[in-house]
Write a structure and sequence with these properties.
Rossmann fold; about 750 residues; globular; 6-stranded parallel β-sheet; alpha/beta; 7-stranded parallel β-sheet; binds zinc ion; about 30% helix; binds adenosine-5'-diphosphate
């Protein structure tokens, strides 16, 4: 169908980036090369906007005179493939979000502009036939650089940048070679074979996981549950190796493409280097929001053309066109960053699963602490469970976990003597310690000891966090910031006290206790500047830090071989949180941060300071027993009627006036009840954060034990919501919400 072009005047339906759940009809003039999936410029109101041709149509509901013509077709990149359009349609249907907004948000910004994108495609240089036949001794001796270039190209094609590494005068020399016809420039050819650095002999468990997935014909979803350090990455590498090979039986002639999704943009540069080293001549691109716009569009194009064989990216990469897609990998599948929290609130993991089934290829979800949703699916047989129960590097074992009962121990600045002693021992042994505290700033709140005043944000229902470095009070929700007052704003007393513990205060306390130790704080404040985090990681690796103080940033996926102690100082608030996912998240976080300890030849220890040492969560952590912990949680969820046993949709609204958001939600609720469909409709309640940035926030939850029933309900309800008066109000519908 894509080859079809319109020769006569005809009608097309175009997706536009506007908040309306329809496509827009335009006419296509004779001679316009208009394929489905093409990006076009069309008049919309008084503007010219970009759109995507989604379909053709024989007739329009609009009067012929009102139908405007497509102005231009952008031929800078090939039309979006049908498969991608189908994926976008699925997302629009499932998340009940306008197709045009889904479609355009899936494109890199450069391809969303109403002007053509001019790729800076790096040319590749290779020997021509004449060049290959040339005897190098025929060249005059003084043309050393030309000799060097020809010699280098005998080993394979190279890019301009690589040639410039040979000599500063390479460009001039190259020009001569091109003119002489010995060298040709061209687009890079995809490799049909690839080198593979087989660094490790797989353990039996790894080998079995690789075999099972590699044998899979067609779609299959696998949950790779492997303890930290069990070598999940190695399994990914070997699977990539399998899937990049040509496989005519599966329609892969020039080899396949692999999509690897990771939760954190911070992890991509490391992983990128790592995979490059394992596949030295495979084109690999990364896609994440940290790239410059031009680079992102360029990488996207390389994926679309099939030239990039490995695509490594954060959640937005799930929408990359991949003509040869043969495998999808989702690392740390439990991570909440796969879910987008605004606009199209999609779960990249779930979209990836749909994509794999649509394409008929295997997908592997990897984690040491799978989400309960995935674990449940593995238990029920929808996904196949693959397990890695041993650490890959012998004799590395899992760390010993110890809980200290803080109701029995005095604390100084949040630290108990046994934990301090353990740090001391590490300092003596020249090993590293990590103190994990998921709260940045100096102290979570400032208090007046005379009248009890607390530093509250006047724009939010939250506290202002004390940051001592610049003597400010900051709201972590809306960004509001003010100087620390000299005296209490209510009673004038000067005795203001920081209450509670943040990473800055922890850093200060540790420095006071261990003056000679080199302490490194890693949180969003200390890593704000570009490159800061990379520099810190290097410092840690090079042994230039003795004690690390950090938030969850430090927990994710990093390998610090000299780290042997992890101290967890105040995890308890999550144990009895109103968020039913809080303890699932806490376990995952602690298992992950604990997994940083003792990765190599040194044994690790995790010390948790808690008031509830006998809580089942800590018991499971001590025995490294994710399986029974997950079972405990699933039983609880089942009893309480929470996901994954029900499917949820959350309608949220926020407005400057409290009544406005409540009125809207009440109306929405009335419509929902009147439908009389088999879904459970809750009452309108304040959001967990009832006021943020001067907006009052409330929500309405709808759920059903059947995903299908919920979807059928939403299909009728959503258009009703679109029709409700919504002045002075922002509202959003979140399907499978993670945050309330
Ligand atoms: P995970 O992602 O499961 O936490 P990694 O993939 O980071 O674990 O592997 C942990 C360490 O084990 C890495 O240093 C890796 O190089 C090493 N490793 C993985 N597989 C093997 C193997 N089969 N033999 C030896 N070392 C391995
Ligand atoms: Zn006061
Ligand atoms: Zn605020």
């Amino acid at each position: 169908m894509t080859e079809e072009t319109l020769t006569k005047l005809s009608l097309v339906r175009v997706a536009l980036d506007v908040p309306l759940s329809t496509l827009f009809d335009y006419s296509a003039n004779e001679g316009l090369q208009l394929e489905i999936g093409a990006r076009v410029v069309v008049p919309f109101g008084r503007k010219e906007v970009i759109g995507i041709v989604m379909e053709r149509t024989a007739q329009s509901e609009l009067a012929a005179a009102r139908i405007k013509p497509v102005l231009r077709v952008l031929h800078d990149v090939p039309p979006l493939p049908q498969e991608l359009l189908a994926l976008l349609r699925f997302c629009s249907d499932y998340y009940h979000y306008p197709l045009g907004m889904v479609a355009l948000s899936a494109l890199p910004a450069r391809l969303r502009a109403a002007a053509p994108f001019t790729p800076k495609q790096a040319l590749t240089y290779r020997l021509s036939e004449a060049g290959a036949a040339l005897e190098l001794s025929m060249l005059p001796k003084r043309r050393v650089v030309q000799q060097r270039i020809l010699q280098a190209l005998r080993r394979g094609p190279l890019k301009g940048a690589q040639l410039r590494e040979l000599s500063a005068s390479a460009p001039a020399a190259l020009k001569g070679l091109l003119e002489a016809g010995w060298v040709e420039a061209g687009m890079p050819l995809p490799h049909t074979t690839h080198d593979f650095e087989n660094a490790h002999r797989l353990t039996d468990e790894q080998q079995q996981a690789v075999d099972v997935v590699a044998r899979q014909q067609g779609y299959g979803c696998f949950l790779l549950h492997g303890i930290t350090g069990s070598g999940k990455t190695e399994v990914y590498v070997h699977l990539m190796h399998e899937m990049l090979q040509s496989c005519p039986e599966r329609g892969r002639m020039g080899g396949g493409q692999v999509l690897l999704l990771v939760p954190e943009i911070n992890l991509t540069p490391q992983l990128e280097n790592y995979f490059r080293s394992r596949f030295p001549n495979v084109e690999l691109v990364s896609l994440h929001s940290g790239l410059a716009e031009g680079e992102r569009a360029q990488n996207w194009l390389k994926a679309q053309s099939g030239q990039a064989r490995i695509v490594l990216g954060t959640r937005l990469a799930v929408f990359t066109p991949l003509p040869q897609l043969s495998l999808i990998l989702v690392d740390e599948e439990h991570d909440a960053s796969f879910k987008q929290q605004d606009g199209l609130r999609y779960s990249a993991r779930d979209v990836a699963i749909f994509r794999a089934s649509q394409r008929g290829v295997p997908i592997v979800l990897g984690s040491a602490t799978p989400s309960l949703e995935s674990w449940h699916n593995a238990q029920s047989g929808r996904y196949r469970l693959l397990q890695l129960t041993q650490r890959a590097v012998q004799p590395a074992t899992l760390p010993v976990v110890r809980c200290l009962d803080i109701t029995q121990l005095p604390l100084q600045e949040g630290l108990s003597e046994p934990l301090l002693a353990a740090i001391e021992t590490r300092l003596q042994r020249k090993e590293q310690s990590l103190i994990f505290l998921n709260r940045r700033g100096y102290a979570p709140v400032l208090m007046c000891t005379a009248c009890g005043w607390l530093s509250e944000c006047k724009h939010c229902a939250g506290k202002l966090v004390l940051h001592l470095r610049d003597r400010s009070l900051r709201c972590h929700h809306c960004g509001f910031q003010q100087r620390v007052p000299a005296a209490c704003p209510t009673c004038g007393d000067a005795d203001l006290k920081p209450v509670g513990l943040g990473t800055q205060r922890m850093e200060e306390a540790l420095q006071a206790r261990f003056p000679a130790a080199r302490i490194l704080r890693v949180d969003r404040d200390s890593t704000r500047n570009k490159g800061a985090w990379n520099a810190m990681r290097k410092q840690i690796h090079d042994g230039e830090a003795d004690i690390l103080v950090g938030t969850q940033m430090l927990a994710k996926g990093h390998d610090f071989p000299n780290l042997t102690l992890v101290g967890v100082v105040s995890p308890d608030s999550a144990l009895y949180s109103a968020d039913f996912r809080a303890s699932e998240k806490l376990f995952a976080q602690l298992a992950q941060v604990g997994g940083r300890a003792g990765r190599a030849d040194k044994a690790g220890e995790v010390i948790v300071q808690t008031a509830f040492p006998n809580h089942p969560l800590f018991q499971a952590l001590r025995t490294h027993d994710f399986v029974s912990w997950a079972q405990t949680l699933l039983n609880e969820r089942k009893m309480a009627g929470f996901p994954p046993f029900v499917h949820q949709a959350l309608l949220s609204a926020e407005a400057k006036e409290e009544s406005v958001s409540y009125d809207f939600l009440q109306r929405a609720r009335g419509r929902a009840l009147a439908l009389n469909l088999p879904v459970e409709i809750y009452g309108v309640v304040p959001a967990a954060m009832p006021k943020r940035a001067n907006h009052f926030r409330a929500q309405l939850l709808v759920q059903s034990t059947q995903r299908k029933s919920l979807q059928e309900f939403l299909r009728v309800w959503k258009p009703m919501l679109d029709g409700l008066p919504s002045q002075k109000l922002r509202w959003a519908l979140d399907i499978d919400p993670l945050e309330f």
